[in-house]
Design brief:
CATH architecture: Alpha-Beta Horseshoe
CATH class: Alpha Beta
Helix content: 25-40%
Largest sheet: 8 strands, mixed
Structural class: alpha/beta
Length: 394
Amino acid sequence: MTRPSAAPDGGCDALFGLESLGAPGTPSATRPAGDAFRTGDIARRLLPVRQIYAEPAAAASPRGRQVLDRFPHARVIEVASHWGIPGLHGNEGNVERWVRVKGETLVLGVKKNLVTRPNGRSADWIAPGPSNGCALACSYCYVPRRKGYANPITVFTNIDRIIAHLGRHIARQGGKPEPNQCDDTAWVYDIGENGDCAVDALICDNTADLVHAFRHWPTAKASFATKFVNPDLLGYDPRGRTRIRFSLMPADDSRLLDLRTSPVEERIAAAGDFLDAGYEVHFNLSPVVLRPGWRAAWADLLRHLDDVVPQRVKRQAAAEVIMLTHNQGLHEVNLGWHPKGEDLLWQPRLQQAKRSENGALNVRYRNHVKAQALNDLRELIDAHAPWLRIRYAF
C-alpha cells in the first residue's frame, strides 16, 4: 500500500463547526508546544512501530496521515477491515511475540458503529472510544479476550465523527437532574473503555481532541483510566472537564502483572501536577488480586498514597475498587507468554463463573471471598487513607 496523498477528507456531520474544536482529525492546537514526551526516548521504546495495517479510508484521512507521518519508516499494509486481520488476529504463533506485537504494530481503522452505552458505575455513559487495544501489556486486561492472539492499538481515525456523535448525545441529555455515584452535576462519559488514552496520545491527537471538545460541554465530563504517565497531557488545558483515573495496585503485583506501564510510584507522584493542569484526579484501586500477603501489600500502598498525595488532591479525590475478573481464553493465551502472572490470576479454588454485561463468560472471586475482601479493603482505606472516598466497589 502506498502512503496516501493529502487529499481533502469527506464531509462531517459535526454538531458545530470543527474549527471551534481546533479541527478534530488534524494535528491539534491544544497540544503543548514541542510535544517533547511523544517524540522522546520513552515513547520510542514503547512504540518502535515497524508495520501499520490500514483501511484505505483510514489511511487517507487527516488523522490517518498524521499517524503515518509520525512513523515514516513503518511498512503500511492495506487491509479491508481493522478487525480480524489475517496473520495478526487469531494467529496462535503471535502469542510468543505478544509484547513485541504491541509495540511494533499499529492498526488504522474507521469506527463505523458509533454507540454510546449506559453504564452507571464508573461513568454514566460509555462513549465510542478513539482506539481499541493498548501498547501496555497488563496480563489481566479484558480487551484481548475478544481478539485472539494479538492486541496492538487500533487507532480510529474518524475522531471528528466520534466527537460529533458525542455532542449530539450530550445535547439530548440536558442537565443532570440529580447527583449519583458517577458525579454530582455532570454526565460522565468514559472515553477510554478499550484502550489507554494517555498511551494513545503518543501516537496522534485523538486524546487531545476529546479533552478539548469536553471543555465546550458544560453538562458533561470526560473520564479515562490510565497506568501511564504522559506529561504531554499537562498541556491540554481540560478546565475541569476531564477526569483522569490513575490505576493503582501494590508495587510487587504491578511489576508482575502491569508490564510496560509507568511504575505505581510515578502514577501517584503525578497526581498533583495533573490537578494543577486542570484535570479532576481520581484513583482506580484495580484490579485487587488476592494472594498471600495481599492485605499487608495494600496497607503499604495506601500509606504511601497518604504520605505522597498533596492535600489539594485529597480534597477532591475519589476511588473505584475493582476486584479481579479473569477469563479462560485469556488464561490460556497468557500461559504462552507470561505464565508466572497466571500463578496470581488463575485461582479456581477462589473463583466462580460470571456472565459479564457484554455476554462474555468470565471468572471472578466467589461471592463470600469477594465480599470479605471488599470489607477488608474498606477497613484498610479507613485506617490509612480516610480521605479517599470510594465511589463504587465491585
